[in-house]
């Protein structure tokens, strides 16, 4: 008998539960209605459209450049971007500098230094401005050391108002 009394004392009474539900319903009924916005919405800015975005990657290590181009193509596929072309030049671009070993004499003793630059190219098609900015920011943040990236965008524009289509009919030539 003692155990039952303790159980009833620890449980909340039925009247408290009913009062709680009633107060919740009353407070929910006093919600203020939504008011309409008096100002008209601002005109919507249209997103830019790019017909093609060309990425030119230049680096001093061909293995790093190849790995970075794979990374760029994988990132484009995750964002749903069409990669139309991806290629590399067959030969590296070589830049040679000839220096004298000694500044003052011995003109016949020269040293040649060579810098090789490797290139890779990627063409992306049909991009919106927001997708392009997100993609470019992502790949530029992950650009490895010894690599450079050049981006060329070809944007689609509206036909200007001063250009009109030709009229139907014969054109007279004087």
Automatic annotation (TrEMBL):
- Name where it's found: Mitochondrion
Keywords noted in UniProt: Mitochondrion, Ribonucleoprotein, Ribosomal protein
This entry carries the following GO cellular component terms, namely: mitochondrial small ribosomal subunit
Show the SMART domains listed in the entry: Ribosomal_S10
Supply the Pfam families for this chain.
Ribosomal_S10
Q: Which domain of life is it from?
A: Eukaryota
Question: What residue stretches are annotated with the Small ribosomal subunit protein uS10 domain?
Answer: 54-152
Protein name per Swiss-Prot or TrEMBL: Small ribosomal subunit protein uS10m
Q: Per the UniProt entry, what species is this protein from, by scientific name?
A: Pararge aegeria aegeria
Source species taxonomy:
Eukaryota, Metazoa, Ecdysozoa, Arthropoda, Hexapoda
